[in-house]
Amino acid sequence: MIMRVARVSASLLLVLVSSGSVRCDATGASDCDCNDHVPFVLFDSPTPSASAIPRFAAALRDASAATRLSAAQQLGRIRDTGIVVPLIGALRDASCPVASAAAWSLRGVTDSRAAQPVRDAISHGSCLVRARAADALDSHPGPESIAVALKAITDSDARVREPIARALGDFGDRRAVLPLVDALRDDAKNVRAAAAEALGRLHDTRALSALTVALHDGNKEVRQAAAYAIGRLGKSQ
């Protein structure tokens, strides 16, 4: 669980939130315009130790959204199961960047306690939270996650659909073949490329015709992914 996160002072983060570098601090449809990327790439700093978990967990209850954001990011840098419960709680934070940072920090965490909260965030979270939780879903394979992914592949946000397509390829359930074939016609090129790659991992020849069409996609990455997938289908026969 490697996070490209910096230890940024609460005051600096507050400036970022209020100035628009980290846009929006509300729930609802408006958070589709949230951008939580800036604090993740500002500075490098030593990775906190597990002994810091209680301090960051307490900071997640601070009145300042900037302080909570920093805490959620820092917890994601710690390789210890003690981060799971605080981050699960932060998934329900009223601040869009804080909740999405908590979901982002749960990427690569295979602890089963995180599985259902991640699935719930994908199914019921606001825009950016769904997107970040979708990046964490592939750490929790199983029937429940497959069911969530089969619905989320048609999410209104391409930031959700792309990691969900990848997850469906990782899960290996062939019920995903037809939804992924449909995703080859997605408006977003990244989703189309992810769907093509996923179909290659599923080794199901029902996708061959659609992948052949995708060889003529207007985007180079999609064409390359389709060619790769067709190659894998040929090896599976």
Question: Mind sketching the topology for me?
Answer:
Blueprint: H1 10-19, H2 53-59, H3 65-75, H4 84-90, H5 96-105, H6 115-124, H7 127-136, H8 143-152, H9 158-171, H10 177-183, H11 189-202, H12 208-214, H13 220-236
Describe the structure.
- Helices cover 57% and strands 0% of the residues.
- By secondary structure, it is mainly α.
- Helix 1 packs across helix 3 and helix 12 (208-214) packs antiparallel against helix 13 (220-236).
- The longest helix has 17 residues, at 220-236.
Task: Give the gist of this structure.
It contains 13 helices and no strands. It has 237 residues and is an all-alpha fold.
**Helix residue percentage:** 55-70%
Q: Please state the overall shape, judged from the principal axes of the Cα atoms.
A: elongated
The tally of helices reads 13
Terminal CA distance reads 36 Å
Structural category is mainly alpha
What is Rg? 19 Å
Arithmetic mean of pLDDT: 86
> Largest sheet, described in full?
none
| Proportion in β-strands | under 5%
- Poorly predicted regions are 1-23, 25-29, 38-42
| N-to-C order of helices and strands | HHHHHHHHHHHHH
- Number of beta strands: 0
Features:
237 residues; mainly alpha; 13 helices; 57% helix; 0% strand; elongated; disordered N terminus
